[in-house]
Each structure stands twice: as structure tokens, then as C-alpha cells.
Write a structure and sequence with these properties.
Blueprint (H helix, E strand, L loop, with lengths): L1 E8 L5 E9 L8 H15 L9 E4 L3 H6 L5 E4 L1 H15 L1 H20 L3
Parallel strand pairs: 3-4
Antiparallel strand pairs: 1-2
Length: 117
């Protein structure tokens, strides 16, 4: 599922946010064009007859989301996603850390399945 959340400021400078909807993720729904059209449809559902200014969108840097966001103003990368990618990259590049994490996971799994707590 893809969550579409809107943050906006009204004409009287009050900040709001709403979850506009969740989009299913399957074959065709992962294309930039589908995502773009679906986002515009959700905006029209929640703001009928209005033409809200979209100044930015936040994505995970996937090419489909970048393509979908081309007409949505400035494109921002999700910081949490970038940190996750960086940490995973570091962990996979360092064999000692990767081996240690695998060992710890094995111990945790062994304790989890053998524990009667």
C-alpha cells in the first residue's frame, strides 16, 4: 500500500494534514503514470473544485515515484528511507558487522523458539 498524506495551510494560515488515501501496490499500480493520476484523483476527492498548489512531494527516490511527482513541485527525498538505505549499505559492506548481526539473530531466534516464557 502507498499512503498519500496531504499537509497544507489554509488562507488564514492554519496548518492541517490529512491521510488522503491508500493505494494498492501491484503490477500496473507501480508505474509513475498510475501513481500520478491516482494522487490527482485523491486530491480531487478531498478538495473538489479547488486547485490546490502542490509545492513539494516526498518520496523514497524510486524512479516511479520521481516520475509521478514531476508535476507536483519540488521533489524531496524521505530522510528515514535514506538513513535506512545507508545503514543497510554499510552493514552489507562490513563483513565483521554482518557476521555479528547474523550470529545475534541466530541466538535470538534460538531463544525465541525454545523459551517457555
Amino acid at each position: 500500500m502507498i499512503g498519500i498524506k496531504a499537509h497544507y495551510i489554509t488562507s488564514d494560515f492554519i496548518s492541517h494534514f490529512h491521510l488522503l488515501g491508500l493505494l494498492p501496490v501491484d503490477g500496473i499500480s507501480q508505474t509513475g503514470l498510475f501513481i500520478h493520476d491516482a494522487v490527482l484523483g485523491l486530491i480531487e476527492q478531498h478538495f473538489p473544485g479547488e486547485h490546490p498548489l502542490i509545492s513539494a512531494s516526498v518520496t523514497d527516490r524510486g524512479s516511479n515515484y520521481s516520475n509521478a511527482s514531476n508535476n507536483f513541485g519540488e521533489l524531496w527525498n524521505c530522510v528515514n528511507h535514506l538513513i535506512n538505505l545507508a545503514v543497510n549499505d554499510i552493514l552489507h559492506q562490513n563483513q565483521e558487522i554482518s557476521s555479528l548481526i547474523s550470529s545475534v539473530k541466530s541466538v535470538v531466534v534460538h531463544i525465541s523458539v525454545s523459551s517457555t516464557l
